[in-house]
Amino acid sequence: MDAEPPQRQFQAWRERVGHVIDVVPWSLDSGKPFHAAIDRYVVGDDIVFTDCRSDAMLLERSLARISTDSVRNYALHVFVEGDVDGVTVPSSTHRETPAAAKFVALDLGQPVRMHRNDCRVLTFFVPGTMVQEVFPDPEAIHARTMQPDSPIAQLALDHTVALGREIATLAAPAAERAVRDAARLLIAGFGKQARLSGGAGAAARAAMFGQVRRYVQANLHRADLSPEGVLTALRLPRPTLYRLFQHEGGLGAYIRHLRLRHAADDLVRYPHLMVTDVAYGVGFKSPSDFTRAFRRAYGMSPQEFRASSGTSGKPV
User: Fold this and answer.
1) CA 110, CA 213: separation in Å to the nearest integer?
2) Rounded to an integer, what distance in angstroms lies between the CA atom of residue 238 and that of residue 246?
3) Beta strands in 1-99 (DSSP E)
4) Helices and strands per DSSP (H, E), number in the chain
């Protein structure tokens, strides 16, 4: 970006990374120099590894943006210099990280807003199938953060730092092996943090998580779908079910968040379907309940979201 005049550097960076994520204009003076550089390595058919140095910035993938692009992979960020704070997930639970983090995992199919400080960050863009090796529901890795305070996290950090130092000199097969190994180490670290890896107990929890997820997906259209109903239908221990979905704010919040995400997809995919029908189709008991929940989660009404995504439907 340094080749650009100072007043163009920030905008040039926005254009450079805009195919993946939006860089939000904030308190930056438009005439102030903005320093950023990125090296990008395509590994095999399904992974991209990047090495980025930049000044502080605010990044966002909004629901409206997600509805209009096809980026659906997972980003595993390792901050080898600086860190990230303020990772916010607009949803029914509005999760936000409580402290700065060195590792951040994102599902690029879900909305997020993230404030990065001045940093050097190494990022792995990987497919859902790789995340699913540890997380039965890969979407559950979204917005998880981690510090290098466990053996596996420290090993992942060391391996990633070495990779960033050496990748430009590695032959293609060696680079691919090193990138895949580092990405799997990171996912394993997030899985261990979520108690989804290591031992028969972890395997049982992963199986239960998958069982609940499949049941919820199959019954999402039912207005009477509830945590109590899931407990009764699957005969699972209440404390175990609570722990499995603690990161989501509980199973009830997970169900509502999933309903809202499916509704957002339907609003874009079926522009002539009435909002009322979308609401009932994903299990909301009334259009007013749906509209309130949608606005609370995403800051706009379903009609406003549909308009922002470039589609239009019939009146409610």
Assistant:
1) 17
2) 12
3) 22-24, 36-43, 47-54, 57-61, 74-81, 84-89, 95-96
4) 12, 11
pLDDT at 315: 44
Please tell me the pTM assigned to this model. Answer: 0.80
Report which residue type is found at 145.
T
DSSP 25: P
β-pairing, 36-43 vs 95-96, is: unpaired
Whole-number percent of the chain with pLDDT over 90: 56
Contact between residue 269 and residue 313 where contact means Cβ atoms under 8 Å apart: no
Burial 234-244 (b: 16+ CB within 10 A, else e): eebeeeebeeb
The strand pairing partners of 95, in sequence order, are: 89
CA distance linking residue 191 with residue 182, whole number of Å: 14
With CA atoms as reference, report the closest residue to 143 among 186, 185, 193, 103.
103
Question: CA 256, CA 109: separation in Å to the nearest integer?
Answer: 17
| pLDDT reported for residue 91 | 61
CA distance 215 to 294: 23
What residue type is 202 in one-letter code?
A
How far is 23 from 175, CA to CA, in rounded Å? 29
